[in-house]
Design a protein that fits this description.
Two copies of one chain form a homodimer. With 336 residues, the first copy, chain A, is an all-alpha fold. The first copy, chain A, has helices at 16-21, 23-36, 43-52, 59-70, 77-100, 111-115, 117-138, 141-164, 172-197, 202-229, 232-235, 241-245, 250-258, 261-272, 278-290, 293-311, 319-333, and strands spanning 104-105, 108-109.
Chain lengths: 336, 336
């Protein structure tokens, strides 16, 4: 007879295996990040470190380090590439906060609230330049190609999101194209450069890329769910920010399509015409519950998480592989 | 007995020799630019081409083509590098207009006035990503190093300018550091990659870089003079934009330092406290005349132009060399 373990006593999914796997390398990445934000122009390290030291998980550079470990890379290029990936991410966040007019990020005032939009735009540009300098130093044209292509695709995804804003006729496919670009592409690139540095087979490079891409999609789906279902403490930003900005995310797409005429009218008034007070946010949350829109958003995330895990099937058992698989569970479980 | 030629009958300096030298290559660069602004995200080519097709001289990519010709490069890499240089420049302009809240550029409404700050920031990021993709395709790590370093230095110069804004105690040296970064560095990089592609000696690479750097400084000095002394038609922007934004440029630095107590008080009220109506702009222009601040700004430009010309002295006579020397005269003569 099997012993029934109540759900509550299962270990909470975490990324601790990943953190411990890459901890030595991550110290070198952090030192690299610190040294490359330095500039005689004092405003640059000030603005950059405000965000960089704000307690982000540094998930993306850890993925680069872990896929390098998974594929047996023994050089040092992964350190600079991991730092580049984090700089690209940080530059995107600085620009995003300007684009979204955000006031809060990771529980702190955004850089643009402290130093202004100008500084956020320009320091983002500086970090992007520094990222490319570090990549060039690694001297791998393949890795340069992967990461520079990612930079263009990320911006493309962001513009796509801007064009889709306040448009409730956005399809689930169009939404997926946005999050593939703005989020998943950098996860994919971060995971692909590891096996490329290690000169592994095209199949293994593609497997790591696929792992990153699908993990990134799952990650963003959960993030978009949390914007309606999370707490400010867990989010590090205000619940309902997407709602107030008129962002069309999957929970909304599902509730809108499944809703009746009155409900669709409500969504139009809220997201297209901008009636987004707390009263409307409460009503939006009710409609999401009524149509199981958050559950199904997480269900979709679970689907992409499963693809990510299967992508790694061709690698034999290893601590690096287990750590990467655990990251998928963690990203999906953030939803609870 | 020498014939005295009156100044007025001398041919007006132009860049026609440069234009005709690189015209065949430039057609390929223009086709490359057009194809690389393409995207399924329609807003991207729209925003990018608004600025790219607005009649800029494309001086920077022409410099890349001309220095490649000067140093006998016979491959095709200079086409993509020239297009990359123009994309880097365009990305900078899109971001600058957001930072400066500019309404007019090359005589047209700025992209941010038509599509908003968000689109300007993101399409700038897209063009920067596309620039790096093209550079990587050329497969020269040296050229990648030069251009990625330039990207970081340009942003550094812009942040420096932001930090110096409205600060009348800015020294001429600090001002020079700003324009070296924000303008001259890209001229230098644009000129350096030609001889690098052609695998010429370090001395020739350094000569081309020095030519570009000093030409860029002269170019920006004249630009800063024109902001007070030019016409709206010649500038493609409003006269006095720098004044209204509180930008501390060399004409102001000279007039402030040479001025008496009352005059310094005026500059403080105008540029630090923001009293910049047309009346103040007229008075500023009077003070610039009184202290010969515009003449001496152009005199400084002439000095850097002379250094640029001497930098090319080690190259034998050629049509490419003559075309590059003429560019210096053109840049300085724009002041008249």
């Amino acid at each position: 007879m099997a012993i029934v373990v109540p759900f509550g006593s299962q270990p909470e999914p975490s990324i601790e295996r990943l953190v411990s796997l890459v901890s030595a390398d991550m110290e070198r990445v952090n030192a690299m990040i610190l040294s490359r934000t330095g500039s005689d122009v004092l405003m640059i390290p000030e603005v950059a470190n405000h965000l960089i030291s704000s307690g982000g998980k540094r998930l993306r550079p850890m993925l680069t380090l872990a896929t390098a470990a998974l594929t047996g890379y023994s050089g040092t290029g992964h350190i600079k590439l991991a730092a580049s990936v984090e700089f690209m991410h940080t530059a995107t966040l600085l620009h995003d906060d300007v684009v979204d007019e955000s006031e809060l990020r990771r529980g702190k005032a955004t850089a643009r609230m402290v130093w202004g939009n100008e500084a956020s735009v320009l320091v983002g540009d500086f970090l992007l330049g520094q990222a490319f300098k570090m990549m060039v130093e690694v001297e791998s044209l393949r890795c340069l190609g992967i990461l520079s292509a990612a930079a263009a695709v990320i911006a493309e995804g962001e513009v796509m999101q801007l064009a889709a804003a306040k448009k409730l006729d956005t399809t689930e496919d169009a939404y997926l194209a946005v999050i593939r670009g703005k989020t998943a592409e950098l996860f994919a690139a971060a995971c692909e450069v590891g096996p490329v540095l290690a000169s592994r087979s095209a199949a293994e490079q593609a497997a790591c890329r696929s792992f990153g891409m699908n993990l990134g999609i799952a990650f963003q789906l959960v993030d978009d769910g949390l914007d309606y279902g999370g707490s400010r403490a867990a989010l590090g930003k205000n619940v309902g920010d997407d709602f107030r900005e008129g962002k069309i995310t999957l929970p909304v797409i599902l509730a809108f399509r499944r809703g009746n005429g009155d409900e669709r009218e409500f969504w139009r008034r809220a997201l297209e015409a901008g009636e987004t007070s707390d009263k409307e946010l409460d009503h939006a949350a009710e409609l999401l519950v009524k149509h199981r829109a958050l559950e199904d958003t997480i269900e979709r995330a679970r689907h992409y998480g499963a693809i990510a895990k299967d992508a790694l099937a061709l690698f034999p058992h290893s601590e690096a592989k287990q750590a990467l698989l655990q990251v998928v569970d963690f990203c999906v479980a953030r939803a609870h």
